[in-house]
Amino acid sequence: MLRLKQIKLSRITDGKKIIPEIEGLRFVSILLVVISHINNNLLRIYPVKDQNLNDHPLSVFLEQCGAGVHIFFFISGFILSVPFLEAFVYKQKKISLKRYYYRRLTRIEPPYIISLIFFFIATLIFLQQPFAAEFEHFTISAFYLHNIIYGHISTVNPVAWSLEIEIQFYIVFPLLAYILFLKKDVWRRMMLLIAFALASIFYRTDMNLLACLRIFIAGMIAAEIYLARKDFFLTKKNISYDIAGVLALYAIITLSGYQNLLYKLFLLACYIVLFTAAFKGKWLNKIFTNKNIMIIGGMCYSAYLMHYAVIYFNINYFTKYLFTQNYPLDILIQTTILLPFIIFLSVVFFILIERPFMDIEWPVKLKNFLSKLSLFKKDESSSGFSSPGHKEDSA
Questions:
Q1: Cα(77)–Cα(173) distance, rounded to whole angstroms?
Q2: What is the SS3 assignment for 153?
Q3: Terminal C-alpha separation, the chain
Q4: How many helices (H) and strands (E) does the chain have?
Q5: What are the residue boundaries of the structural domains of the chain, listed by start?
Q6: Is the pTM of this model over 0.85?
Q7: How far apart are CA 393 and CA 390, in angstroms?
Q8: How large is the greatest C-alpha to C-alpha distance in the chain, in angstroms?
């Protein structure tokens, strides 16, 4: 029964091998983002006004947990780099740019557009936004340009800001790979470090790729290390990596807002340590490769698309009535209630929407299905018209 459940909820990978530890990192990322947004929405309508809760240590930490988005960027840099490095450096399967862009279009776009339509309708009904203004935001968001044009997050789905940055990275990544993934090891590694330093120095504060490029490049550096020392990542686990991994994660959460170059170089080391600990940590590896953790991590795209609306709607209309005016307790209560609900709706969205679009052949299958349906209707129509004729002849 459990096996069947896992098959239904597993990702379709187009024949590519899933790296369990990466699924675990995805789980950590989405968990951090979710609890950060629970805190944001709670504080937005919290009835206790005589306390400056924004300075509360727990509130500060939960706000910083939004750095989970940065871990997503790191993972994207790693995942995209592995096949390109294998092709350019290790002379494995060649990269087809046509297939690369086609895969991203057919895999990412449909769930995003479907969720965007749903949330657009919801904003009209529940938030009573003017149709013309909201439709404009919807259209711009559909083309991943809201950050660039408006300079602030989408009003249709606020979390779409990071997806826009992801898409920008997907577009330019092949060019980056051609520039940085040189054949000679020394030059390639030097170029990656120089690229990280440049991306860190020329930092921009607005929400676009340049503001986050260094984190994607950190993922590219992790891919370089992973492929160069693959045997190291598969050898004996050690609890010292668990300690180092937890400390690195804490540093990523609490220091990601700092813009000093030394902090960014330190955070690069933290990302590499966390990545390594996912493979080498005795306990972290067990957690990250747990089947249920991997399943939730594998559907993080669905969870990311759905979670903010679930949190916003429930806190605004239902769970706010459970506030005790004890802030830490209220965070615990809200998280305990909302997390299972988010997981449930994410699973539904994943099964019905996201997972079918993971199949790279879905456009062909859909076309074949529609062709068969058209032929069936044509045959049915033909048989329907011929029947009276036969009756007339027999009469």
A1: 9
A2: coil
A3: 60
A4: 19, 0
A5: 2-360
A6: yes
A7: 5
A8: 95
